[in-house]
Fold this sequence. Notes:
It is built from 14 helices and five strands. It is an alpha+beta fold and 418 residues long. The chain folds into two domains: 2-199, no CATH class; 207-413, Heat Shock Protein 90 (2-Layer Sandwich), CATH 3.30.565.10. Strand 4 and strand 5 (405-413) form a beta hairpin.
Amino acid sequence: MTGVLGLLLGGRARRRWVHLILGGALAMPYVLVGSVVVGPLTGVDNVFGSLPLQLGAFALGLPIAALTSLFPLTRPLESAAVRALCGIGGDAGGELAHGPARTRAERARTAAWFTLHLGLGGIVSGMSLAVPPFAVVVIVLPLFAGLRDSPLVLPEVFDRPWALALAPVAGLAMLLAVAAFAAACGALLAHWAPALLGPTPADRLAAAEARAADLAVRNRLARELHDSVGHALSAVTLQASAARRLLDSDPEFVREALAAIEDTTRRTVGELDAVLGLLRDGDAPGTAPAPTLASDLEGLLRRTRVGGQRVTATVDADPEALPPLVSREAYRIVQEGLSNALKHAGEPVALRITSADGRLEVTVENPLGPAAPTTRPGGGHGLRGIADRVRLLGGTAEAGPSGDMWRLHVRLPLRGSA
Length: 418
């Protein structure tokens, strides 16, 4: 019994009832417009003196309400009212409209919702005004004999003793019926609100695709930051360490190391500015171009060697002839491979870049060393980034120990990558 009363008169049910009453209040101007039309058509001066004519004016006003629902603020205002009063929360509440209807389908669904809200609200409002006073009179009828002769209580019904004894029960049943009808109408509106005020399946699919595209862009930018900044920090650390050790014995080497540090940091700051410019909403992208094998392979090798790392490079491919996308991604793969060698492994490092059979192959090898681990703690992000780049281009990547060497081998297709 308590659960039933909670459903009929609980806090959520009362808020939905208020929402329906607001709908009835919004329906009144349209009913008045309908009465102006119904009165002359029927020749009746007082339309509100007849229940059938009132219903006719109400039915005539609803199409007018549907037309006025095309006003831009109708949809966001109705959505706000639903969130506040209908108990629509969580994902469903977030799906409700925040702005005006823009497409024909959205305007049609808004008109359907507004008509449903005002229609049910008008009925519930009329019942809420008329039934409770009558029900109260019926409940107290056995206590006040004078009320039994009133035409409002149908004296021919309550002139029998058994009917009079059941009058309080009948009055309570009327009140419960009004509450049950209001609760049912409120639940119906809450059920239909996401469908009529929210996005269509096509809208949800488009939003999901937009979120996926945004996430893909941000993941790509994260990979760029990891590869660019991570390699720069590794190279600068190695160069600074070598310069410190040889500060007194080899000033020329120190000058070269400091120049390499300056060049590395300048280029990295430019790349960092470009990436952060894309991440800041409303900012224009930075002007630093993305490095490629054609534009900066030699510079990358030079900056790596300045720190004392021995790197041998065999390039059996024309970087200028590579598709720009492959050249850019291959540069990042080489950069990450050299960065891993700087951080984790011994030297020398062997780099091979070859092009044959419509594929670009990049191989980076370096000795594990007697105490080097076969797996590299902390190196998973870089290898995962390489795997992501290769997968997006439709290639393959292998990384791991091979005998006493650590080997990174990547194959990238050249056809269809432009």
